[in-house]
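Quick illustration, no need to memorize.
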Amino acid sequence: MRGVKRTAAAALRNREAIASALRRVLPPRGRVLELGSGTGEHAVYLARAFPALEWQPSDPDLQARASIRAWSAEERLPNLLGPLDYDVRLPLWQARPADAVLCVNVLHVAPPDCGEALVRGASRVLPRGGPLIVYGPFRRRGNPLARRLARLDAQLRAHDPALGVRELEALAELALSHGLAQSEVMAMPEEGDLLIVMRSEPSRP
C-alpha cells in the first residue's frame, strides 16, 4: 500500500488551519461529505480531529481513491468511510443527505461549471443551516492577483484555458442564487481563502 499512497505538501501545511476553521461551523454530529478528497490526507486528519462526525471522502480519480483507501487502512479510524466515485458535476452525490459539505483545492483545477454544480448540489443535500465550506486560491473582484497566485493562474491556463483561479464573489453569488447565504470568508495559509455558506432555505428538489 505504501506505493499507492499519495502526499501533497499543501495539504500538510494547511490542514491545521482548516481544522481550526471547521470547529466553528461543523455540527457536533452527523455526516460530512468531502468532494475532491485528493490524496486523502485531509480526510484522515479531519476524521481524527472530529471523531463524533462520520467523514465521507470522495474523488472521481481512480488513483486518488486508491490513495485515500491506503491512508484509511493505515489509520483505521472508525468514523472514516471508504472513498466514493463522485464527480461534482454529476448528480450521483446528491442522492444522500449530508450535514456539511467540504471542498478543498478543487475549483481552480476543475472546469468552470464545477462551481455552480457544487452550490446547486449542496442546496439539495444540506439541511437548513448546514454549511458548505470551500477552500482554495481565489481572486477578488476588481483586484489583480498577487504574484504567487498570478503565476499559478498562468500555469493552469497554459495547461488548459478552462482552468484557473476563480473569483470569490462570483462563487458567493452563485451560492446565494441557490439558497446558500454567505456566512463568512476567512483568509487562510497558502494565499487561500475559506468561504462558508449556509443553507438558508428548504432543500430544493
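The chain has a mean pLDDT of 92.
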